[in-house]
Amino acid sequence: MAKRVALFLPSLVGGGAERSAMFVGEALERAGYAVDLVVAQRSGVLLDHPFAQAHMVPLGTLPPLLALPAYLGYLRRRRPDLVISFVHSANLLSGLAALVDDTPFVVSVRSTLRKRRRDQWWVRRLFGFGLERRLYRRARFVQTVSRDLAAECGALFGVPEARSWLTYSTVADTATAQPRTGQVPVLPAAPFLLSIGRLVPIKGFATLIRAFAAAELPREMRLVILGEGPQRDELAALAASLGVADRVDLAGWHPAIGPWLAAARGFVFASRGEGLARAVLEAVSARLPVAAARSVGVTEGVDDGRLGRLIDPDDVAGFARAMEDIASRRLAAPDPQATAGHLARFTPEAVGASYVAMVEACIGRPSCVAD
Hints:
By secondary structure, the protein is α/β, with parallel strands linked by helices. The protein folds into two domains: 4-170 and 347-363, Rossmann fold (3-Layer(aba) Sandwich), CATH 3.40.50; 174-345, Rossmann fold (3-Layer(aba) Sandwich). The chain has helices spanning 16-31, 50-55, 68-78, 88-97, 122-127, 130-135, 147-157, 172-175, 205-214, 232-241, 258-263, 278-285, 316-327, 336-343, 348-363, and strands spanning 4-9, 34-39, 56-58, 82-86, 105-109, 141-144, 164-166, 192-196, 222-226, 248-252, 266-269, 290-293, 309-311. The chain has a seven-stranded parallel beta sheet, with helices on both faces. It has a six-stranded parallel beta sheet with strand order 10-9-8-11-12-13, with helices on both faces. Helix 12 (278-285) links the parallel strand 11 (266-269) and strand 12 (290-293). The two termini are 13 Å apart.
């Protein structure tokens, strides 16, 4: 019988962590492990993903932090050999479950830990990092997606090097994906600058809209932002107040971004911190000129500035100049050879192999029967 790995998520909202979980599950299944996709809430735009359809184990409809009893019930009923949890609320539940259940677990940390207080997860606003520091001591590994994030986990969670596992995210599952029949996007006919991400304050879209309004750009140039989130109305109001509502497109979430990347003039990204900025890697992979924030998990995406321009996250004037330089082609696409060398560490093969190696380090090879 194959060893079973549970991938535990709060929901399937469609962010980078959720998409990565699908990729990890497929890689582990190919390696011979049985995989459950456990979700605290059966919700999100990725519910119809083929892997989710085949492997999803929903715990209910309660908010994730209220799902501990149902999660413990799953562990006792299904007895997975290993749990890999994604996103901070699921990580916390795995740590709490370990107080009463001996199932081995890995905590996957995929977002910067040091944030402005107003951007910080409410649990950390109340308790700091002390609670997670204690709970994650039982984790087999704390897995991260960038070297800067690994350093943060070491400093804030007290994770020793022996229990830190760095595995990058891959971009091939999204950057090269094409839309399904009936989902072909309507792209702007005019030239446009592109940004991608969940519409939340830490992503810095307000900075980009202000920069776009301040920049001296051709009248036909547009700013397209792909993503959904609670800040949509606020961003739309900001664009209207600055007189650029007719040139800023809040285009919503799209499962396949290949056509947008292929059509964009360039890519701009003002996030104050990430785990690893997949959107930036997707833009570099598409060989677009990139202007990105100098922040955790972003600088590594452009190879510390060698494949794109780095700007302080809240520097409106700096992003405005970058937009002007992209529009006028003064900021060019990165060198193909340098891009290929940089992206080699983010290939599906390299990333998938690293996840399989991590699982083998925790519970051994996929089969319970010795080779």
